[in-house]
Specification:
The protein contains six helices and six strands, in the order βαβαβαβββααα. It has helices spanning 10-19, 48-63, 95-104, 168-171, 173-179, 181-195; strands spanning 2-5, 26-28, 67-76, 113-124, 129-141, 159-161. It binds inosinic acid (IMP).
């Protein structure tokens, strides 16, 4: 099966392609189908599910292809789940500035618990079939950015997955891709596709 990734985020596309490399799913990016790199979807939803659907339906409308959208973010316990769906845009500036500003919101006594959540939306415009898959990874926040910016993206330099002492950016994408929220959601997608001979059966 061929699936178009409804994203222009290079980090996400790389991870999804790497995780699905051993599956029967052929992953296409916007480049493969001639969409502009700045083909952007305004994320007006207030939940990961809403925004995943907005992205999936926009890419499907533009191409007619079955698509896979990922809406994801970091949820910090002491901040009641903030920045959540706003992870990419709660503060103008660079990724590093956002990471540091987020850490500055926590007082020394606050819990440092945090988790990444990924919601995937699989949408087949021919069959009008929509299916969602979710993955979560629990962990904690480091006190400063650590690790290579070349490994992973976004909040990876400040997120330490449970059971580890290093951040995702220190662990590197090979380790991250074995355990991440995105990995867990993609495993559910893969399982769904394996158990549905034609993935795009309409819901009964
Ligand atoms: P979206 O395009 O609205 O889904 O934005 C997701 C944002 O959440 C990213 O730009 C990052 O800021 C953050 N995020 C989601 N997943 C990850 C991850 O695996 N590592 C680091 N940051 C992530």
């Amino acid at each position: 099966m061929r699936l178009l990734i409804a994203s222009s985020n290079a980090g996400k596309i790389r991870e999804i392609q790497a995780i699905l490399a051993t599956s029967d799913i052929e992953v296409l990016s916007y480049k493969d189908v001639g969409l502009a790199a700045d083909f952007d979807v305004v994320e007006t939803g207030t939940t990961f599910t809403d925004n995943a659907w907005l992205k999936a339906s926009a890419y499907a409308a533009a191409t007619g292809l079955p698509v896979l959208a990922d809406d994801s973010g970091l949820e910090v316990e002491a901040l009641d789940g903030f920045p959540g769906v706003y992870s990419n845009r709660w503060l103008a500036g660079t990724t590093s500035e956002r990471n540091q500003a987020l850490l500055a919101k926590l007082s020394p006594t606050d819990s440092r618990n945090a988790q990444f959540r990924s919601v995937l939306c699989l949408y087949d415009p021919q069959m009008k079939h929509t299916q969602f898959f979710e993955g979560v990874i629990k962990g904690s926040l480091a006190t400063a950015e650590r690790g290579s910016r070349l490994e992973g993206f976004g909040y990876d330099p400040i997120f330490i997955p449970e059971g580890y002492t290093q951040t995702f950016a220190e662990l590197g994408v090979a380790v991250k891709n074995q355990i991440s929220h995105r990995r867990q959601a993609l495993l559910k997608l893969n399982q769904f596709l394996l158990t549905n001979t034609h993935p795009a059966q309409p819901e009964s």
